[in-house]
Amino acid sequence: MTNGSGETINTAVIPVSKLEDDSYDWWARHGQVLSLQRTIDPEVVLIGDSITHFWGGEPGTEAVHGNREAWNSVFAPYRVLNLGFGWDRTQNVLWRLDHGQLDGLAPKMVVILIGTNNTSDTENARANGPEEIAEGLRAICDRVEAKAPSAKIVIMGVLPREHEPDHPRRAAIAEINARYAAIAQERGYTYVDIGPQLLEADGTLSQETAPDYCHLSERGYRHWAEALRPLLPARQ
Length: 236
Fold this sequence. Notes:
Layout: H1 26-40, E1 44-48, H2 50-53, H3 69-75, E2 80-84, H4 90-98, E3 109-113, H5 130-147, E4 152-156, H6 168-187, E5 190-192, H7 195-198, H8 218-228
Parallel strand pairs: 1-2, 1-3, 3-4, 4-5
Helix pairs in contact: 3-8, 4-5, 5-6
């Protein structure tokens, strides 16, 4: 996308609603969030795409990957709102935050894992470069800070994709994560990259961890749970 002067417009920072078809109803899930958010009164909010969406929690989904043991092992004591939406990019998250998904809430912690879908070209949206994606994350963080000013913000590094370590997408993810880490340091957030734990010793991504070399299995979610466990708010 370009403006009238021929300059490229960063689509990663322009809020937009549903872009892609997936195995669920995007609009229905948005409505569920708005209906449930005050009832849940979450202590922890997860913001993301399908990797977050398919882990578990509320709003519920039939598309859960794994057996929920990893989810329950870390989140069972907490009230958690799962704002993961399959196929979402940074621009979709911005739209959702602009349309009420955090309004009126006071979570103690917000975990953000977003950006992997911005690396994909589809008929509905172009791929973004690492700097564009980082600006998308920065805009999301601005919204979260404004709507939940007392929350501890945890930025997750984009998870590794593709089987082989020399795949071009791996290099792009490394660049994205370097920018994410810098944003976290600049703003005093916590940055967590579980990529090394997800990969095998030779740098490959196993189907036991990510069956399609993208989405996590229960084995993969266990690594995420272990990384988040020490960061969760203390119970009263």
